[in-house]
Write a sequence for this structure.
């Protein structure tokens, strides 16, 4: 739902619009990202890889 508040709208009108909006928002499922830490094994230094990739873009 989108609420449009125009310049000059009174505070009372804004408060009434805020009360009318729906309260039940869908909640996002929490993801545990710590389980992915350290799972990738790199043969190269990540900084060297990043510099190489950036150089590829700038040389074109």
């Amino acid at each position: 739902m989108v609420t449009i508040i125009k310049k000059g709208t009174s505070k009372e009108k804004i408060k009434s619009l805020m009360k009318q909006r729906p309260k039940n928002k869908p909640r996002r499922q929490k993801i545990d990202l710590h389980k992915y830490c350290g799972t990738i094994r790199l043969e190269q230094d990540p900084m060297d890889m990043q510099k190489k990739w950036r150089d590829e873009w700038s040389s074109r």
Summary: The mean pLDDT is 86. Residues 32-60 form one domain. DSSP finds two helices and no strands in the chain.
